Amino acid sequence: MDETTGRDEGSGHPGQGSLLPVGAGGADGEQRPGGAPARRSRRDRRGRGVRGLLLPVAAPGYRTRAERFDEAVLATVERLEKAWGRELAGTEFAVEDVPPSDPSPWETGGVPMGRYFPAESGQPGRVVVYRRPVENRAVGPSDVVELVRDVVVEQVAHLLARSPEEIDPHYRDLG
């Protein structure tokens, strides 16, 4: 009880906690220039508590687009390794967001969706799939999976000097 006002210190407005003296700092003791308390990074609107997650971690919608894209690439690579395991031994597969701004001499027109690097001087062969160009060309989530499959098959075909149809009989199948 505050003797000068006759009220409890924390009973200002409903939902308001105890009052801090001016310049006492924020929730973590930080101060702004001039002695004002620092703002909290998360807001507690109208006394209802801090917002939680919109989806539980176990829900399928919780995964990001990048995680779903990585899973599509991994599923395609695993399927190809079953059929072409010996030829693909040591080959690295990677996902990058966007291609570098300096295209290779053989890449003409448009933004590449993938790129292969042949094995040379002790470096293993490498296939890179670019997430953003693939997602931009796809109409929906199921198209992303099909486009990822086609891009990986095309790059593996270039790497192994074979036709995409030879690498995957379902290449360019719709559905």
UniProtKB/TrEMBL annotation:
Q: Which CDD domains does the record match to this protein?
A: MMP_TTHA0227_like_1
Q: Where is this region: Disordered?
A: 1-51, 95-118
- Biased composition range(s): Basic and acidic residues: 1-11
Against SUPFAM superfamilies, the record matches this protein to: Metalloproteases ('zincins'), catalytic domain
The record's InterPro entries line, in alphabetical order, gives: Zincin_1, Zincin_1_sf
Q: What name does UniProt use for this protein?
A: Metallopeptidase family protein
Higher taxonomy: Bacteria, Bacillati, Actinomycetota, Actinomycetes, Micrococcales
- Biased composition of type Basic residues is found at 39-49
